Amino acid sequence: MGKIAFVFPGQGAQAVGMGKDVYDALPHSRAVFEKGDEVLGFPLSRLIFEGPDSELKQTVNTQPALVTTSAAYLEALRQHGVNPDYVAGHSLGEYSALVAAGALAYEDAVSLVRLRGRFMEEAVPGGQGAMAAVLGAEREALAELCRSISEAGNAVELANVNCPGQIVISGSKAGVEEAAQRIKEIGGKRAILLEVSGPFHSSLMKEAAERLAAELGKVTINTPSVPVVVNVNATAVTDPDEIRELLMQQVFSPVLWQDSVEWLIAAGVDTFVEIGPGSVLAGLIRKIDKTVKVVNINSLESAEAGW
């Protein structure tokens, strides 16, 4: 029998109104939102449900909002007794995955990602960093292009290896813009500059990672109930100290999402359950392997259906 992986989305999946259906219908899910408001000391749930969108999109708000909404949908699914063999999350989603595996208490996760968002926003002055989605380029060729531009003085690196033909690059504004302009030199189709508040998952985030490390040292990380496949090295991890170290490294390291999904499939996973708003990961997983089953738990209806 095939195995199940729960996967959780990262920044970009947010939308005003997300999670309101399970908040209204299910006491366990409502309790997650109420706990988030209490822990953070401000009405996060009102921002999630009512907006404004411009405020929800601020990294410092987006990160706790997504972890909270994913945790609320997870509670809705748990009422049906569905349990995973593995968990994984895309960037920020790794915190939701750790909550699902019992490695992090939700209260600690939501507090950490609020700080993580703030540290990431503050690491690089506005306008100095950038990110771009590159379509149709080979990974090695793109990495080599980024290396040559960085060596010439403008940092740019691979940030998210999402699926075949879709890689996000990150770094200095000048470096990212130069790489974007030169994509066709390496056989890529095009590059799209992203609306983000900083050069996430690049070496320019090392200061944010150091600040986060101090906060990670204050929270308890338990041995997860199931292995967590992490972004930094796309392998399953169960040791709490290793999880803590990799969460710090994740801030400035590329998100190896394609590699993580391929690892899970090789480990026998044939059903991926994306828990949280949107369906970004489902789309990426289908591009990585069309034969696996992908389920979205992003509404009360889908959670009630179980599958």
UniProtKB/TrEMBL annotation:
Pfam families: Acyl_transf_1. Residues 7-307 form the Malonyl-CoA:ACP transacylase (MAT) domain. Its EC number is 2.3.1.39. SUPFAM superfamilies: FabD/lysophospholipase-like, Probable ACP-binding domain of malonyl-CoA ACP transacylase. The keyword Acyltransferase applies. Keywords: Acyltransferase, Transferase. SMART domains: PKS_AT. It comes from the Bacteria. The active site is at 91, 201. One of its GO terms (cellular component) is cytosol. GO terms for biological process: fatty acid biosynthetic process. It catalyses: holo-[ACP] + malonyl-CoA = malonyl-[ACP] + CoA. One of its GO terms (molecular function) is [acyl-carrier-protein] S-malonyltransferase activity. Belongs to the fabD family. This is Malonyl CoA-acyl carrier protein transacylase.
